[in-house]
Automatic annotation (TrEMBL):
SUPFAM superfamilies: P-loop containing nucleoside triphosphate hydrolases. The lineage of its organism: Eukaryota, Viridiplantae, Streptophyta, Embryophyta, Tracheophyta. It comes from Juglans regia. This is ABC transporter domain-containing protein. GO terms for cellular component: membrane. Pfam families: ABC_tran. InterPro entries: AAA+_ATPase (IPR003593), ABC_transporter-like_ATP-bd (IPR003439), ABC_transporter-like_CS (IPR017871), ABC_transpr_CbiO/EcfA_su (IPR015856), Molybdenum_import_ModC (IPR050334), P-loop_NTPase (IPR027417). Keywords: ATP-binding, Nucleotide-binding, Transport.
Length: 264
């Protein structure tokens, strides 16, 4: 038996998602899970007419109010899965469900901020809610507080570091009372201080509100220490999901087996 078969045959840490009653093809019944994907497949057809599967039968469930991470090697399909959950891509088949309003935050901090000042940027998405000026101020202030950026209210966004821009983007989502944050490799372009600042900001948000759930895509194993749970993918498939410490152990075992295999 090769290693891959061995790991795939391990019992999943979470039971498979329950069957559902659906009122629409994108709805999956769920009680304590804010994010759920069932048998998600995604494929593309190249210009040459070749069929390329990118996601294969991916199922995952993220409990409400928790901070989970999505890990896996380059090109295994993490961003594609996250975009499907965000509704930015439609799966070829399978169902995706996110409970409540959601926000997808991109990898590049410079793609996040659109307004000249921090205050204006966080308030940007609130136009659609018909709020009074005081309500807008209060939401902006609370959201900036949640990500540790309240002292930056009047700052020009151009003067912020990458991590501060990411935190402002997260504050924008919180100001809109988004309940699910879908965060794609926010720390890729950041230096170490900024990385820690962003991840701690998300952790603090979740600790102070049971209503917010976050799924964070990352390559960095050290970030798992902030997570409640994790999903590990390889080659378009969800290989394992569950407790963060056990996923970390699983990935480390997998990496050392891979290194041994190469050395031998
Ligand atoms: N529109 C597309 N056309 C062709 N191939 C695509 C397209 N979108 C994604 N892919 C391929 O699908 C696979 C999964 O891509 P995806 O970006 O989801 O991976 P990832 O795990 O997020 O990778 P990374 O860690 O590098 O961000 C990759 O092989 C990628 O090249
Ligand atoms: Mg990606």
């Amino acid at each position: 038996m090769n290693l891959s078969t061995l790991f795939r045959s391990s019992a999943p840490l979470l039971p498979p998602p329950r069957s559902t009653s659906t009122s629409s093809s994108r709805t999956v019944a769920t009680e304590n899970f804010s994010i759920e994907g069932r048998n998600l497949n995604f494929s593309i057809t190249t210009r040459q007419g070749n069929y390329v599967p990118i996601l294969r039968d991916c199922s995952l469930r993220i409990p409400s109010g928790q901070f989970w991470m999505l890990l896996g090697p380059n090109g295994c399909g993490k961003s594609t899965l996250l975009k499907i959950l965000a509704g930015l891509l439609s799966p070829t088949n399978g169902t995706a469900y996110v409970k409540g309003s959601k926000s997808y935050v991109f990898q590049n901090p410079d793609h996040q901020v659109v307004m000249p000042t921090v205050e204006a940027d966080v308030a940007f998405g609130l136009g659609k809610f018909n709020l009074t000026v005081d309500e807008v101020r209060s939401r902006v202030s609370n959201a900036l507080d949640a990500v540790g950026m309240s002292n930056y209210l009047q700052r020009s966004v151009q003067t912020l570091s990458g991590g501060q821009k990411q935190r402002v983007a997260i504050a924008g989502a919180l100001a809109e009372t988004c309940k699910v944050l879908l965060l794609d490799e926010l720390t890729t372009f950041l230096d170490e201080n900024d990385q820690v600042g962003v991840i701690k900001a998300v952790r603090t948000c979740l600790d102070s509100s049971e209503e917010v759930t976050a799924l964070w895509v990352t390559h960095r194993l050290e970030e798992l220490e902030y997570a409640d749970g994790a999903v590990y993918m390889e080659n378009g498939e969800v290989v394992m999901q569950g407790d963060a410490a056990r996923i970390l152990e699983f990935i480390r075992t997998r990496q050392s087996a891979y290194i041994k295999q190469i050395n031998s």
